[in-house]
Amino acid sequence: MLTIWRDCHRGVSTLSSKFEEILRNCGLSDWRTVRSVEPLTGGVSSDIYKVTLAGRVVCVKSALAQLKTEERWCAPVHRTFAEYRWLSFAAAQSRGCVPQVLGYDSVNHAIVMEYLAAGDNTTWKERLLAGDVSKPFAAEVGVRLSLIHAASFREPAFLKEMDHAEDFRALRVEPYLRFTAEREPAAAVQILHVAKHLEDARCTLIHGDVSPKNILCSGYGPMFIDAECATHGDPAFDVAFCLNHLLIKAQHLPACAGALKAAAGVLWQSYAAGIDWEAPENLERRVAALVPALMLARISGKSRLEYLLPATARLVREQALESLTSPPGALSDLIRPDK
Q1: Which residues on neighbouring strands pair with residue 113, listed in sequence order?
Q2: Environment class of residue 13 by beta-carbon count within 10 Å: exposed (0-12), middle (13-18) or buried (19+)?
Q3: Residue 51 belongs to what domain range?
Q4: What does 154-171 look like in DSSP terms, one character per residue?
Q5: Chain-centre distance of CA 81, in angstroms?
Q6: Keywords of this protein's UniProt record, alphabetized (predicted)?
Q7: 42: alpha, beta or left? (left if phi > 0; alpha if psi -120 to 50)
Q8: In this predicted model, what pLDDT tens digit does every residue of 242-269 receive, in sequence order?
Q9: 38 lies in a domain?
Q10: What is the mean predicted confidence (pLDDT) over 129-134?
Q11: Number of domains in the chain
């Protein structure tokens, strides 16, 4: 995406004209004052850079056409616009729930945001894997997510603009569900039923990637990042996507299993308290159907979890298949301590 050259007179790296163009297109008046650029790690779908200007530091994110996964996985780069719109909408609903967005460059499909130092903003995934499980934090995740979903339901014109069904299919339905169905014939019918529903559903604005790795533990509480999959869809997907991670981590960390399942329970309860666009029990049924499909996808799909030991992966797969072929009566059946 960019080229860096050495300014021999000053002895510092400067950005190429292409990168300066991105900053200029985003309306940053100090685009000429770049002092350094540093690639950041994390994630498989984008190139992300820390850019130091004369008086501040910003983050520049640009989507990749070919994701960094073992299986071939391509997606349209214009998905950064969906992320920009989601972040902007969420920022208006809850203070501090997303990073400050500074601009969007439609020419280069890039977003410029405030830079958040890693040491001050650890991911929820890092804390959970370290055994730090906070029920109040999980509850606030549910509150904020419900607030964003509810607010978007009242904006039908905006939702119509945010219908990115093809992007969602390429980033979520195909790699997570349809790909998994091909490799898990015993549960293919159930998985494909869920996949078809997600392709057709239109209810609220959804983030599409509410994973603990995309939730920062900031001074303002949970902060959502990486909304490339945002679309007009089924809010059950966002809830299930997050709960699935908590339940898998309960298998990965047996000593924290009770705390992680309790956190999953309070996340759902706090989320459900804000549902005002449909009957909560209807949404709960869809979440309960989605969770095991997504758990299986993290074992057999294109985006497999990197931290699971083989024995744990087998256990997660067995439990997901059992729940898919013998569906739970309620979400509580998936979260209960003995499950």
Answers
A1: 59, 101
A2: middle
A3: 8-335
A4: T-HHHHHHT--HHHHIII
A5: 15
A6: ATP-binding, Kinase, Nucleotide-binding, Transferase
A7: left
A8: 999 999 999 999 999 999 999 999 999 9
A9: yes
A10: 96
A11: 1
